[in-house]
């Protein structure tokens, strides 16, 4: 199957540090004792950390006010940043699946956030929308506690996003399977609302996993997504007694469907927990 992923890998988003060109290059001698190898790798890690810190210090940060902060589901929040004074930053979001770093007051550590809104929204309304999971003690928790008008700082838009050209034209890839869990639905929203000719394909399904109904975001958008050609399959791992849909994990729900696919004409989009992506890949 063709597999489309965030660049870098799906949530949680991570950076990979590389030695800075400002630091002296290092080479590995052919004959190193184990102690020397351990010392070398420890030194390389220290250089990588220093390089990452240097890049963060020289990164361009754009101040922007919040225009919307509201609960989306249990522990999840809708956050909208006003970019009307930063048109260049808004225009740099050109593909679903891209992300950026966001700094909040009183916290030195930025958060990596996937942009939930489609690029057209940034171009038209001049905003970035995010789906943020509030984690105790994190910068994300501070962000979710802010209010309209509070100013945050945004780093540049990063990543190549979802390469939908790999599943075009739609008649050659009639089947597209999308798997997302938790806040991993955030960049998937951007993908669906950006459009990838779902209505021209014979089978486009989104398996969306959450713990329970209260933790499932974007339910108000499901009808619109389905009208665009995407079938939504909610999967709850801790459902209530009144739940009649799929239960367990998304990979198990997919297996229970027991449908056969032509791997040469099927696209797969994965965004969520590592175990899910490994099983579904």
UniProtKB/TrEMBL annotation:
Name of the protein described by the UniProt record: Fruit protein
Family matches, as InterPro entries: FAD-bd_FR_type, FNR_nucleotide-bd, OxRdtase_FAD/NAD-bd, Riboflavin_synthase-like_b-brl
Molecular functions (GO terms): oxidoreductase activity
Record-linked SUPFAM superfamilies: Ferredoxin reductase-like, C-terminal NADP-linked domain (SSF52343), Riboflavin synthase domain-like (SSF63380)
Ranges where the FAD-binding FR-type domain occurs: 59-164
């Amino acid at each position: 199957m063709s597999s489309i992923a965030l660049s870098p890998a799906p949530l949680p988003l991570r950076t990979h540090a590389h030695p800075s060109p400002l630091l002296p290059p290092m080479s590995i001698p052919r004959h190193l004792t184990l102690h020397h190898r351990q010392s070398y790798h420890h030194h390389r890690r220290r250089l990588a950390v220093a390089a990452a810190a240097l890049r963060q210090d020289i990164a361009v940060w754009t101040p922007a006010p919040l225009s919307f902060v509201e609960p989306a589901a249990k522990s999840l929040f809708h956050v909208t940043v006003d970019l009307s004074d930063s048109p260049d930053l808004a225009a740099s979001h050109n593909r679903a699946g891209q992300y950026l770093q966001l700094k909040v007051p009183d916290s030195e550590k930025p958060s990596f956030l996937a942009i939930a809104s489609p690029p057209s929204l940034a171009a038209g309304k001049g905003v970035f929308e995010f789906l943020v999971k509030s984690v105790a003690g994190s910068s994300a928790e501070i962000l979710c506690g802010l209010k309209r008008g509070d100013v945050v700082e945004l780093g540049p838009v990063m990543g190549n996003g979802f390469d939908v050209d790999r599943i075009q034209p739609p008649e050659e890839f009639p089947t597209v399977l999308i798997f997302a869990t938790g806040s991993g639905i955030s960049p998937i929203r951007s993908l669906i609302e950006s459009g990838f000719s779902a209505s021209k394909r014979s089978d486009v399904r989104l398996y969306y996993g959450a713990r329970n109904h209260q933790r499932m975001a974007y339910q108000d958008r499901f009808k619109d997504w389905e009208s665009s050609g995407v079938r939504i399959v909610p999967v709850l791992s801790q459902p209530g007694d009144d739940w009649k849909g799929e239960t367990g994990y998304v990979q198990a729900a997919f297996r229970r469907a027991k449908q056969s696919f032509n791997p040469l004409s099927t696209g797969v989009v994965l965004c969520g927990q590592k175990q899910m992506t490994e099983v579904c890949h």
